[in-house]
Amino acid sequence: MDKKWWKESVVYQIYPRSFKDSNGDGIGDLQGIISKLDYLKMLGVHVVWLCPVYQSPNDDNGYDISNYQSIMDDFGTLSDWEELLDGLHTRGMKLIMDLVVNHSSDEHAWFAESRKSADNPYRDYYIWRPGQNGLEPNDWGSFFSGPAWEYDEQTREYFLHLFSKKQPDLNWDHPQLRREIYDMMTWWLDKGIDGFRMDVINLISKVPELPGVAQESSSVRPAYHFGGKYFVNGPHVHEYLQEMNREVLSKYDIMTVGEAIGVTPEEASLYVAEDRNELNMVFHFELMEVDSGPGGKWDVRPWKLADIKSIISKWQTALHGKGWNSLYLNNHDQPRMLSRFGDDINYPKESAKMLATLLHTLQGTPYIYQGEEIGMTNVKFGSISDYKDIEILNMYKEYLADGHSEESIMNSIYIKGRDNGRTPMQWSAELQAGFTTGTPWLAVNPNYRDINVEQALKDPDSIFHYYKKLIELRGQHEIIVYGSYMILAEDHEQVYAYLRRLGEEQLLVVLNFFGKPTSFMLPAGIDFQEQKLLISNYDVDPLTEIISMELRPYEARVYLLKHA
Ligand code: NOJ
């Protein structure tokens, strides 16, 4: 397997709006991030992924970009951004930028032109179609509720938007549009950035006929449907990514990670196989869907350990030696890992550390989402008016209209809503968690008095210090990065255990996933003469026999096993 800096790196994701406000307007900004670079260095991360900081009317918090080459006023200026890049590079860290090119904002100059007339030179930068019998061109639904089409009076046609109606989809089949995007990417790369995280990149190519999903001849359209089979891994996506790689990416020593909705490991290989020259990694969603029922994200079900094990094992095995995994347990679109997979009430420290152990000891590049390293949790705001996320607000209206009870809707927001991950970073026990001197754009989680960075830095046993140690270990032991993966005792109901192997070394990871004690027997056939305890979230006598282990609630242990 080829060694690469991005395989050996740990990435830290920043959601700028919620990270640190420097000027008291209640919105995080670039100077705020700059003021925390030493904190990131102390944690030991190698790369920062910055969620979008470009000019945007913020219908979807920056994922609706109106100018790809300028910085959002709320966040600062291009010179602040240059200072940030420089500050990272001086400290030996790297920066990857979010690339959001499946869609732009409807306030982008391209769209302003495109909507003017059917023969405007920018018309085909977007996807326009006439209506059908007075209805949308097809029955596709948007990811943010309602139809994926919006009617535009000016030219009496509809434009496609897979996300909000302020996020019109770009038409990747248009060569000139692709050229503009490549030039824009080159412009950022020439400023010295170290790569891109590519937003919903596997949706950029649509089946040109845009067929409906359940379309009947009837003019009454009963519902909107997920049109994924016509745009997930669409017909030209690999051709376009190979072109992008040839024209842009291959000219720089950078890392790329594509967000890839609904991909299987086999499909993912087509994006990340090293000989295909597309991307380095993708973010898949299988683990994030482990607690969703057939009704999708808001149809909440309890997750099963057996599913978590089988999903992770499948990806670890399928990409081994072919491509590279990205590892994440939460991000700005997901609930907090600790509330979702751990126990944020009875065992916050133990379970956060157990999950962190999983994140850092698999094959792949770990991505830490801001606040995860101090055990930030989900939030329960009393009223829907406290929420800001467009996905939540649209769903709330749609579900109410469909007859769901307010209580059940709020309950699913508490479990799955994206604002769980977007409450301001908790820096201290001061007012507003030390995030801002003003009024935060989204309320802080009331638990900030107990859970905050200041507190975490003081406590040698904190989740923060455990993350720091995990990151150090990854740097010291190649096996953690490059070793192969084998699941152990697959049927154990409470324990997730696996063995990594590289050369003569073996790494044993044992994780009790629940708040009940349990025991674990090492399966026969694992040969070693020496054991070294690398890390645990409990006090463990390093010499305790490991053939049979008694594990406390959420106990995690990592051993290096060697032949004498
Ligand atoms: C995925 C992003 O992570 C999410 O925040 C955004 O709403 C959609 N893509 C649309 O850009």
Report the principal-axis shape: globular
CATH homologous superfamily of the domain at 9-99 and 365-476 - what is it?
Glycosidases
The whole-angstrom Rg is 24 Å
Strand content: 15-25%
- At the fold tier of CATH, the topology name of the domain at 9-99 and 365-476 is TIM Barrel
The hetero molecules present are:
1-deoxynojirimycin
Counting DSSP E segments of at least 2 residues, the number of strands comes to 22
Question: How is the main sheet built?
Answer: 8 strands, parallel
The level of helicity is 25-40%
Q: List the total number of helices.
A: 15
CATH architecture of the domain at 9-99 and 365-476: Alpha-Beta Barrel
In whole angstroms, the N-to-C terminal distance is 26 Å
Strand order of the largest sheet: 11-10-9-5-2-1-15-14
The CATH class of the domain at 9-99 and 365-476, by name, is Alpha Beta
Detail the poorly predicted runs: none
What's the average pLDDT? 97
Structural class: alpha/beta
